[in-house]
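User: I'm putting together a teaching handout on how sequence relates to shape, and I'd like one worked example. Could you take DUF1311 domain-containing protein from Methylophaga marina, show the sequence you're using, and then write out its predicted structure as C-alpha cells right after it?

Assistant: Happy to. First the sequence, then the C-alpha cells directly below it.
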Amino acid sequence: MKYTPFIAPILVTAVIALNQTFACDSQSSCKSNAKTSSPAQRLAESCYRQWLTLDWTLANAEMLARDNLAFNEGVRNICQARAELFFEGYEIKPFIADDSQQEVFPLVFRPNVDTIKSQIRLNLPKLRLI
C-alpha cells in the first residue's frame, strides 16, 4: 500500500496511452472505411444489390446463384471492375442487366478485380474512352 501513490499514476497513464492507441486504430479503420465509400465503391455496391434481385440460377445445381459463395463474390468483383472502368471513362454500363449472363459467367471466377478489368477490356473491343 505504500507504493500506491507511485503505481496509481503509472496505471492511469498506461490506460490513457492504451486508450489513445485503440482510438488511433479505430480512426485509421474509419479512414479506410471512408476510402472504400468512394463513388466507384458505392456504384459497385448498388450494382451488386441490384444483381441480387435478378434471381439467377445455376443450371447444374438448380440453386440461386446468390447462394453460391464463389459466384456471389465473383459478381461482387465484376461489379467493382465495371464501376471502376465506368469511372475511368469507358463507355460501359456499370450495372449487370438481366440478360447479361453470357457476359458475366466467363468472368465470375476470375481471381481479382484487375484480372476482370483486363478481361473486359480484351473481350469487348467496342469499349472506348469517352
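A couple of points you could highlight for students: The beta strands are 57-58, 63-64. Helices lie at 4-36, 39-52, 69-87, 101-104, 113-123.
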